[in-house]
């Protein structure tokens, strides 16, 4: 049985009219579903500005510059077996961690790649959630695997959005 997930979405006030909470939750849910995770998981997602991302990047990674997405995992990886470092909440929900997206970086990258900002935000959220699930792009093989999953999840989201609307 697939369990319900807890997705805590926070959007800085200046981006509230640009990005929809329900849509972001759907992006996270679709990414988790693509990996057949049967445990209930909790993910925190923040859509924010360059300054906030730069501050977090400097404090936690020692890199004093902004980036497009940060992912802070609370464990090494998740599977349907209880992994070492498993961090259950009071409701026995696996707390995966936090994803932080810089909306200004998403806008720049969308323009550079010639696609809608919504697509870029979705890709960044997917990318961050995949990191929380244990994926990395440290080798060409791993990067290719991650890109393939991102493409498939984005396609699924785009199909769902055709029934509603892409932000």
Give the proportion of residues in helices: 40-55%
Uncertain spans: 79-90
Distance between the termini: 31 Å
The helix-and-strand class reads: alpha/beta
> What series of H and E elements makes up the topology?
EHEHEEHHH
Shape: globular
Total domain modules? 1
**Strand segment tally:** 4
The total of helices stands at 5
Mean pLDDT across residues: 87
Q: Any idea what the CATH superfamily is called?
A: Metalloproteases ("zincins"), catalytic domain
List strands and helices in order, with pairings.
Layout: E1 6-11, H1 21-34, E2 41-48, H2 50-61, E3 69-73, E4 94-102, H3 103-113, H4 117-132, H5 140-163
Parallel strand pairs: 1-2, 2-4
Antiparallel strand pairs: 3-4
Helix pairs in contact: 1-4, 1-5, 3-4, 4-5
Explain this structure.
By secondary structure, the chain is of the alpha/beta class. The protein has a single domain, classed as Metalloproteases ("zincins"), catalytic domain (Collagenase (Catalytic Domain)), CATH 3.40.390.30. The chain is 46% helix and 17% strand. It has 5 helices and 4 strands. A 4-stranded mixed β-sheet has the order 1-2-4-3, sandwiched between helices. Helix 1 (21-34) links the parallel strand 1 (6-11) and strand 2 (41-48). Helix 3 packs across helix 4 (117-132). The longest helix has 24 residues, at 140-163. It starts with 5 loop residues before the first strand and ends with a helix.
List descriptors.
four-stranded mixed beta sheet; globular; alpha/beta; 46% helix; Collagenase (Catalytic Domain); 167 residues
């Amino acid at each position: 049985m697939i369990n319900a997930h807890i997705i805590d979405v926070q959007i800085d006030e200046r981006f509230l009219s640009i990005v929809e909470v329900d849509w972001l939750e759907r992006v996270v849910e679709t990414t988790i579903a693509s990996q057949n995770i049967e445990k209930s998981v909790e993910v925190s997602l923040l859509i924010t500005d360059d300054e906030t991302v730069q501050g977090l990047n400097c404090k936690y990674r020692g890199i004093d510059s902004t980036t497009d997405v940060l992912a802070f995992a609370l464990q090494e990886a998740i599977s349907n077996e209880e992994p070492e470092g498993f961090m259950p909440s009071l409701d026995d929900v696996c707390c995966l961690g936090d994803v932080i997206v810089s909306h200004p970086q998403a806008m720049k990258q969308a323009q550079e790649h010639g696609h809608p900002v919504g697509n870029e935000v979705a890709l960044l959220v997917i990318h961050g959630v995949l990191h929380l699930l244990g994926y990395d792009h440290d080798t060409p093989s791993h990067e290719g695997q991650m890109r393939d999953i991102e493409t498939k999840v984005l396609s699924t989201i785009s199909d769902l959005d055709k029934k509603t609307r892409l932000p």
